[in-house]
Amino acid sequence: QVQLVESGGGLVQAGGSLRLSCVASGRTFSSYSMGWFRQAPGQEREFVASISWRGTRTLYTESVKGRFTISRDNNKNTVYLQMNSLKPEDTAVYYCAAPRKTSDWGIQDPSDFGSWGQGTHVTVSS
């Protein structure tokens, strides 16, 4: 298992920016792709973005393309989510997650991710 701790959430006005961080420990972070998910009140957890283990490939859900950027620093065991041009509909608890297998890439189903952080709240006011 890998332990994940997110930070960087908060309250921001529409059009603003936030950068989320997720620090990993407990297994070889650099061997795994990483993902960000979010869950709004009353909604199911949804995929936001993922990044391959070397950071050369990224994947985004359509609603955040062009606004969010996922990146990672394997020397720091950290994955980031830069969120720009935030909208009220981006309000949610954001989670980082690691897949169950090192070979996993491009997966978006939360059930395929075996390690989760505690989440960080993002609130975007209109």
Write structural notes for this entry:
The protein is mostly beta strands and 126 residues long. It contains no helices and eleven strands. The strands form two sheets. Strands 2, 4, 5, 6, 9, 10 and 11 form a seven-stranded mixed beta sheet that branches. Strands 1-3-8-7 form a four-stranded antiparallel beta sheet, with no helix packed on it.
Gross morphology: globular
Measured distance between first and last alpha carbons: 39 Å
Sheet with the most strands, sense and barrel status: 7 strands, mixed
Mean pLDDT: 95
Q: How much is the radius of gyration in Å?
A: 13 Å
Order of helices and strands: EEEEEEEEEEE
> How helical, in percent, are the residues?
under 10%
The total count of helices amounts to 0
Structural class: mainly beta
Stretches where pLDDT is under 50 for at least 5 consecutive residues are none
- Strand portion, in percent? over 45%
Number of strands: 11
